[in-house]
Amino acid sequence: MMHKLALVHSLWKWLGKLLLLELFARGTPSSPHGCPAACICASDLLSCVNQNLQQVPAALPPTAVTLDLSHNNLSHLHSHWLAALPRLQTLRINHNQIERLTARVFHNATYLKHLDLSSNMITSIREHFFEHLVNLEEILLYNNKITPQIGRA
Question: What separation in angstroms does the CA of 145 have from each of 11, 56, 68?
Fold first, then answer.
């Protein structure tokens, strides 16, 4: 009898921990730094993949180290939009509808190491778009519509 009671107690403790983990992963909508409804948050990973998003969700958790917005319908990114993500190291915005980048689109993303902008509709890239990305190790731009800007500043 004691063995069954101990087993039931252990099972309830395990289920309680699992429930807490699930609640943490989802975040709370009322929390200022909760997980956006269209996303999945787990620790420092924020995944908003394939949600038909037309704009970046507001109030992203500032603890995110990885943000995946791939396979959506994002057409533009606002200047300074990464200011709320001071720890961001990996950003995936591939497979969207982005046509152009604004001058300060990656401003404040000083810790960014990996940037994937592949499979969008980007037509031109200016050198100054990436000048603040001092830790950038990898940038993926393949499968865009980028044309050479020879002789232009």
Answer: 55, 22, 22
